[in-house]
TrEMBL record:
Subcellular localization(s) per the UniProt record: Cytoplasm, Cytoskeleton, Cilium axoneme
Domain of life: Eukaryota
Pfam families, per database record: LRR_6
PANTHER family xref list: F-BOX DOMAIN-CONTAINING PROTEIN-RELATED, LEUCINE RICH REPEAT FAMILY PROTEIN
UniProt protein name: Uncharacterized protein
One cellular component (GO) term of this entry: axoneme
Major localization listed first in the record, in broad terms: cytoplasm
Xref: InterPro entries: Leu-rich_rpt (IPR001611), LRR-containing (IPR052394), LRR_dom_sf (IPR032675)
Amino acid sequence: VLRDATMGPYVTLAWLDISNCQVSALGAGWLGEVLGNNRSLRTLKLSWNDIGAKGCRLVAEGLQTNSALNMLDMSWCGIGDGGGAEIATMLLTNCGLTKLDLTGNGLGDLAALELGRALADSNKTLQHLLLHNNPIGWQGARKLLRATLAESIQSIELCGCHLLHRPGGASEFDPRFPWGEYHLNLAIPADRAVAFQLAEVTATDALSSPQWVDAALDGQPFQ
C-alpha cells in the first residue's frame, strides 16, 4: 500500500513517518526505490527500525540522486560504521538534505572521518547533523569538526558521544590544527619535534596559542 502511495506521476505525499514499524533491510530496499523516483517527499522518519548497514546502503543509493527530501531521521537503526560510510558516500552527490539524524547507530571514529570528508569535499547543503549517543570519541569528533569548519553546516550535535578528552602524543599532532592538550616526553625525538613546533605557534600567535604547563628538558624550563 505504501509503495503505491509514494510512487507514481500524481503522488503529492510530503511527510512520511514509519518509525518503529519493524522495517527490515528488505523494506529498506523498497524505500530506496521510492527515494530514487519520488520527488514530493520532504520529510522521512525511519527511527527505531532494524535496517542495519545493508538496508542503509539501499536507502542511501536512492538518495544519491534525490534532491527533494530535506529531512531524514534514521536514528536508532543499527547501521554501524558500514552504514555511516554509505551515508557519507550518498552525501557526496545529494543536494537536497538539510537535516540528518543518525543518533544511536553505533557510529565510531571511522564513520565520523568519512562523514567529515563528504561534508568538506562535496556537500554544500546539509545544515544540521545529529549524532547523539554514538561512540565517536574525542578523535572522531575532532576529525568531523575539523573537516566542516569552513562549510555550510550550521550545527553538529554530539551529546553522549564519549568525548572525554585524553591528552594526545606526537602522533596526534596536526600542524594545521595544533590546538589541544599534549603530554610529550621531550627525551623522545618525535615528541621533542612536536614541542618545538608548538613553541613556534606560541611565539607567533599569542591569542590562540597553546598554554605551556611544567615544560622542562634535562631539568631546565623548555621554551
